[in-house]
Amino acid sequence: MAVIYEKVALIGLGLIASSMAHAMRQRGLVGSITGHAKSAESRAAAMELGLCDAVFETAAEAVEGADLVVLAVPVGVMGHIAAEIGPHLKAGATVTDVGSVKQAVIDAVAPHLPDSVHFVPGHPIAGTEHSGPRSGFATLFENRWWLLTPPDGTDPDAVARLRALCEGMGANVDEMEPAHHDLVLAVTSHTPHLIAYTMVGVADDLGRVTDSEVIKYSAAGFRDFTRIAASDPTMWRDVFLTNKDATLEILGRFTEELFALQRAIRTGDGAHLHDYFTRTRAIRRSIVQAGQDTDAPDFGRGGTSKSDGTRG
Amino acid sequence: MAVIYEKVALIGLGLIASSMAHAMRQRGLVGSITGHAKSAESRAAAMELGLCDAVFETAAEAVEGADLVVLAVPVGVMGHIAAEIGPHLKAGATVTDVGSVKQAVIDAVAPHLPDSVHFVPGHPIAGTEHSGPRSGFATLFENRWWLLTPPDGTDPDAVARLRALCEGMGANVDEMEPAHHDLVLAVTSHTPHLIAYTMVGVADDLGRVTDSEVIKYSAAGFRDFTRIAASDPTMWRDVFLTNKDATLEILGRFTEELFALQRAIRTGDGAHLHDYFTRTRAIRRSIVQAGQDTDAPDFGRGGTSKSDGTRG
Q: What are the recorded GO MF terms, alphabetically (chains A, B) (predicted)?
C-alpha cells in the first residue's frame, strides 16, 4: 500500500497507539513514527519494540513536522495535550484522537488548535482488557468499526485521508455526529462497562461468599464481567466523567427495566420473565448475522475469544 | 475407564444431557443410555445422533431399570417429573439433577422419591448459549466444576460413585450445602445473567439508537451481554423464580453499589470511580491465576472463546 502520511506522531503509547504503530508499519502506510508518553518506561518500551523511530519527553517535541498527530491519551487529559502541542503543529497537519467520548474531546481540544490544522476526531471500537505499549498488535482493528466525527466544515480531503489510513489498518469507517456517537456508545459500551464494574464490586464485597468461591466458580457468567471490569481505570473514569449525560440517561432506563424484572421475580411473574428473555435472545441472532460475532458455542477454554468489549 | 453405571436414564435431552451422553460414551463410563424428552423432535435427534440406545415418550418408561437417573429439565418441572418417575425407580438407583438452583429442586423432588433410592443433587457449572440435543459436545465439562449438594445422611458410596462419573467426564467435583450453593451462584451467575438480559432489553427499547446501530457497534462490551442474554428463556425464568431470595438479595446490593457509582458520575467524583475500577481489576487477576480463564487478550475474532457463562 502507498504511504498515506509521511510522518505520524503518536501522543500516548498505550494499547491503541501501539497497535496502530504495528498496523501502520506492517502495511507500509506511513513513513516514520514519533512518539510521546508521560512515563519513561513506556517510551523505552516503544523504542525497544520498534513502535517509534524516535520518542520524546514532551508532546510538543513529538509533533514537530508531523503530518498526522494521534491523541491516544485518556479523554480527561486531551485538552491539556492540545494546549501544549497547538503552537508546535505543522500547517496543514491533521490532528485526530482515539477517545471513547467525542463531544467532550471536541470541546476540550478544538479551541487549542490553530486554523491551519485539520481536526478529525475518531474512535476505533476495538480493544482488549490489557493496557500499555506491550499490549498492542497489528490486527486489532481488522473488521472493527472506526468512527469519525468531523465537525461541520472540516476539509473533506483531510477526512478522506484519515479514512484511508483507518481502512488501511483493516477497519471499517463510518462518520457520525459527535452527540449521537456518545449516546450510541453509552448503550453499547459505557453503561455495560459500569454495570460489569458494579457486579464485580458487589461480589468482592460479600463476606459470606468468600473471594475464593467467587473466583473458583466464576465460569458461570461472572467471568465475562470480570474481564470487562479489568479494563484501564483511568480511561474509564474519564469516559464516565465526560459522557455523563448520556450514561446517566441510559443508566436511568436500565434501573427502570431492572426494577420491573426484580418485581416480576418477587411476585413470581414467570410470563413476564420468559417474554423478556425471549425478546433479548433475538438481538443476539442479529449480531451474529451482522458479522460482529460468530455462532460458535462459547465454552470456556479457548486462548482467544469472540469479544473485545473492553475499550470505549 | 471402567463402567461406573450399567444403565443411565437421561430425562431431558438438552445441552447438558446431550453433552453428558457424548462424554460418557466417549470415555466408556456407562453401559447403556435411555432418554426421554417431551418433544418428538428432540427424541428423534437423540437417536439420530446416537446419544441414546432407546428413547421413550414418558419419563416413567425411560427410568425402568436405570442405575442412574439424571434430571436435566428446567428447574420448574423437576417436581412433576419426580412425581411421575418415583414409583418406577429401581431399588438402589441414584437420582441426580443438573439444575442451577439446588434448594428448590431438593424441596420439589425429594418428597416423591422412595426411600430405596439415593438422591444426590448436582450442578455442573458449564454451558454455552446454545440449547437442545444438537448443541452437546463431549468436552463441555472438562476442567469445569460440578457441585454436588447431597442432603445429610445420604449414602457416601452413592455420592462417591456419582463423583467418579463426573470426574470421569473431566469435571472437578466439590460438595456444598444447598443454600450456600444458591447464594454463591446468585453472585457468580444468576444476577449477572439478569443484568445482561436487562441491558440488552434497554438497548432494544431505545428508539433513538436504532437496532442496526446497536448491533453494528456491539463490539464494545455490549456483545458479551448479548451472548449471555441469548441463553434458554425457560431455564432462566425457572432459575429466577426458584432462587428468588438469594437473587433479590444480591440485586439489592447491586443497585446500592450502582447508585453510589451513578452519584459519583453525577457529582464528578473521579477519585471514587478510579478507586472502584482499580479494585475490580484485581479480581480479574485472581481469576486468571485460579486457572478459570486465560490472560490472552480478548480481541474479538476467535471461533471459540474463554467464556461459558451462559448456564446457571
A: NAD+ binding; prephenate dehydrogenase (NAD+) activity; prephenate dehydrogenase (NADP+) activity
pLDDT given at position A303:
30
Identify the architecture of domain A180-290 in CATH. Orthogonal Bundle (1.10)
Tell me what the pLDDT averaged over chain A comes to: 89
The pTM for the full model equals: 0.82
Residues 3 to 62 of B: which have CB under 8 A from any A CB?
Answer: none
Q: Which positions ≥6 away from A289 have C-beta within 8 Å?
A: none
Confidence class for position A308, pLDDT limits 50, 70, 90: very low
What are the structural domain ranges in chain A? 5-176, 180-290
pLDDT at A80: 97
Could you give the ipTM of this predicted complex?
0.83
Tell which A residues from 264 to 283 touch B, by Cβ distance under 8 Å.
Answer: 265-266, 268, 270, 273-274, 276-281, 283
Residue of B nearest to A193 (CA): B221
pLDDT of residue B295: 61
C-alpha cell at B129: 448459549
**Inter-chain CB proximity A198 and B257 less than 8 Å:** yes
Q: Answer whether B254 sits within 8 Å of A198, measured CB to CB.
A: yes
Query: For B295-309, what is each residue's pLDDT tens digit?
Result: 655 433 333 333 333
Among the partner-chain residues A219, A244, A304, the one whose CB lies closest to the CB of B309 is: A219
Among the four given CATH numbers 1.10.357.140, 3.40.50.300, 3.40.50.720, 3.90.870.30, the one describing domain A5-176: 3.40.50.720
Strands A122-124, A145-148: parallel, antiparallel or unpaired by DSSP?
antiparallel
What mean pLDDT is reported for chain B? 89
User: In chain B, which residues have their Cβ closer than 8 Å to the Cβ of A187?
Assistant: 202-203, 206, 209, 214, 222
pLDDT in tens, B94-133: 999 999 999 999 999 999 999 999 999 999 998 887 889 9
**A8 Cβ neighbours under 8 A, 6+ residues apart:** A24, A30, A31, A32, A33, A34, A66, A67, A68, A69, A70
Are A227 and B285 within 8 A, CB to CB?
no
